[in-house]
Amino acid sequence: MAHNKTVPQVKGDFLLGNLRQMIASPLQAFYNWQQDYGDLVSFRLAARQFYLFSHPKLVEQALIRQSDVFVKIYNPEKPTGLALILGQGLVTSQGDLWQRQRRLMQPVFQRSNVTTLLPQMATAGNNMLGRWRQMGEGAHINLSGEMMRLTLEVITQTMFSTSVLDKIEQIAPSLEILLRYAAKTIANPLTLPLYVPTPANRKFKQALGIIDDVIYGIIDQRRTAPSDQNDLLDMLLKARDDNSGEKMTDRQVRDEVITIFSAGHETTANLLSWTLYLLVRHPGALARLREELDRLLQGKIPNAEDLQQLVYTRAVLSESMRLRPPASFLLRKVSKDTEVDGYFLKADRLAIFSIFNLHHHADFWPQPEQFDPERFLVSQNRRYSFIPFGTGERICIGSHFALMESQLLLCMIIQHCDLQLLDPEEVEIEMAITLRPKGGIPVRIKWR
Prior knowledge:
Elements: H1 19-24, H2 26-37, E1 40-45, E2 48-53, H3 56-64, E3 70-71, H4 83-86, H5 95-105, H6 111-115, H7 118-135, E4 140-142, H8 143-160, H9 168-187, H10 199-224, H11 232-238, H12 250-281, H13 283-297, H14 304-309, H15 311-323, E5 329-334, E6 338-340, E7 343-345, E8 350-354, H16 355-359, H17 399-416, E9 417-421, E10 429-432, E11 434-437, E12 442-447
Parallel strand pairs: 2-8
Antiparallel strand pairs: 1-2, 3-5, 4-12, 5-8, 6-7, 9-12, 10-11
Keywords: Heme, Iron, Metal-binding, Monooxygenase, Oxidoreductase
GO molecular function, one term: monooxygenase activity
Binding site for heme: 396
């Protein structure tokens, strides 16, 4: 295979390679390596070798033109990352299983169907605002926790026609434990396997048991009392294999339900949290957003047609996803020796595509650290330099759902609330698969 460029290797320790930097802060490590070594680098975590991609051209050549080479990782014998939680759900599965499940679920997430779910989303938003009002003027809340609660209610009501808010005190910390552990297995290959009874492993198993109880409870409830909800859960339970005619096993249904349950609210909650935080810190952008909402909505809850007219609102969300992408990287395995942009890449290494680095690349984003929604009001080719939902055939199935939900709920909150930060210090970013506000976002609620 002809190639003439060698991938730069990040300097590290003799035995552990770059493990210390990764454990300290994967997000900062990825950004520093791109700044110091370039847009394609190689790094090592103990014995495991990785490639880090940080340029749109490289993303296109790998994920679009060589999608059969850069493949999803799922090893049922030794699962890592999200596979530890999601099993063979839509995010982690591959091949025929992935294609079949994607075809099955696609209709639920089409834009035309998502618009019919707007009233349920609005109800969840109104319930939250009503609960806030009951707390009284000047009440203190943790914004990130509130957004997790809100988006969890939206996803369970719209996809499974149920509510799990009565179990939120168990669900929220359990999901946090699971995501932190999943991230650790990627960042630290020396993590001991789950069968070793370490405190962290026991904690993970207990958290997974809590979430599994919730998920299987939802499934059992529907099997016991079938309905004509025609929601995602109905589709999964009624689906039959094209060849055998067999229905999905409870384990298969569980894997898909927990995928939508967790991925479907975690990323949107972080998007809303970061967006509200950034708006509070940038009064000029907040004032312009309020002007658009007051002018076009005049206090009402927007419908699907209204949302299309809210151009600056969408620009605010896009700029938030650029600056703080909820999903900050994509992970693939190089299935065979290949070449990307003249660089030779070896088989069986892992490839990380840093969405954060792409969204902060100075060649494509002037003043990349600045929050400037107006950059999204200008028509520009952002192909592969802006991929908050991934790209290629594995692009997030729920992108329309997440954008419509985020836009609606942002409008409702901004129309009614003035949020004031309780801590003037900048909120730190924490990468636990998704980009979270470390320690949450404490705010005071004032009513407009």
